[in-house]
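Appendix B. Extra example for self-study. Work through it before the problem class; the solution is given directly after the inputs so you can check yourself.
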Amino acid sequence: MVFLQLYLWIAPHVLLGLCLLGLLRNRRYKEFPMFFTYIVFEEALFSGLVVIYFLLLRSVASLTAYRWVLVIGIAIAAILQLATLYETANVLILNRLYLARALRPVLKWAAVLLIFGASAVSALFSQNGMQRVMNVFEVLNFSSSVINLGLLVVLLLFTRALHVAWKSLPVGIVLGFGISSSVEMIASTLISGSRASYINIDYLRMAAFHACVLVWLVYTLRPERKLEFVESGFKKSDLESWNQDLQRMVER
Amino acid sequence: MNIVLFVMIVGVLALACIVWSIRGRNSDTRNPNGLASQLQPIDICAFRNLIDDGEREYLRNHLFPPDFRGVHRERMLAATEYVWCAFRNSGILIQLGEASRNATDPAVAATAASLVENATRLRLDAMQTLPKIYLSMVFPGLTWTAQDLPEGFDKLTRQAVILGCLQVPAQVAL
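Solution. Structure tokens for the complete assembly:
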């Protein structure tokens, strides 16, 4: 069990490091600077927590200090996650003026509603007599997960309804955040309902983050896929029949 | 207890929704060669007539209220068919335009970008118009306007034809 715990704690951050190298190598950090910053921050937070953990083992630091660093780190990570989602939406609607005008208010109102919803549900969940710092941690985790997940769903449904083409990396970012946020949301709910032990739920969280990082790594290293028929080109007969169809459409 | 279960179900559904959207995105663009043949013709004049405010007022003034409601419902039902058709066609044109956005010929790429922008706009307009039409079927007195829709589709199809014309010489040259 100790091995599994250490593996789930360390392995995702090793993979995140590879993800960082991948972004640097294919220069996609320029396209997604916020995502890059978020990964750098996660790595820095992990390093800081490892140092505090070892100080804790030598009784130099306290558990409360470790937890407060974790809580503050999660708060900053939540802001960076939101910034990454905004960046992903921005990349999608770049060069699409009309879409930008339509999507911005949808995302804005969705964010407002989600913040209210998350606040209300968090208030319900935070009455279980947990330690203050852990309470703040759970509320933060839950609220950021709800907001992330809601914005992801709105963004995906909106772009799917409008047939907006997605590049590979934004899909990976969204899928990764989707896995992580949904499991975080469920985990926070389970803790508040005291359905399972905290340790088991922590395993679930770490496993979800591991899966999320794996998805990011695959999509970071995967070459960008172009639409197949651009590569092969239209056949002349296809284009002629397309033109005929279109001419038929404009007939009056 | 109930809220815990509810939040858990919402979490699972949201993840399923994300996976479904991404899977759909991947399969949408796999068979584009048959896309153009899926375009359906739209009689823009007939559609314009169906949503014309003047026509509606004329019918309202010359028919008994129960007759008008029946006729209006039939006309709006027919109008929804046109809007659904425009919705589907604009989706196809977005995919065709997206495929040509990366073309080496700048003229093709520019036309494709413009086509995608307009097709997106039309699709969004169609999405907003459909609930209004359905609402109008229930409440015939409700005034709504979709005058931009036929105009938009008209403009869009012209752009698609231009894009097709631009691509043919490029393919022949290859």
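Self-check: The CA atoms of residues 151 and 213 of chain A lie 20 Å apart. If your reasoning did not lead you there, revisit section 3.
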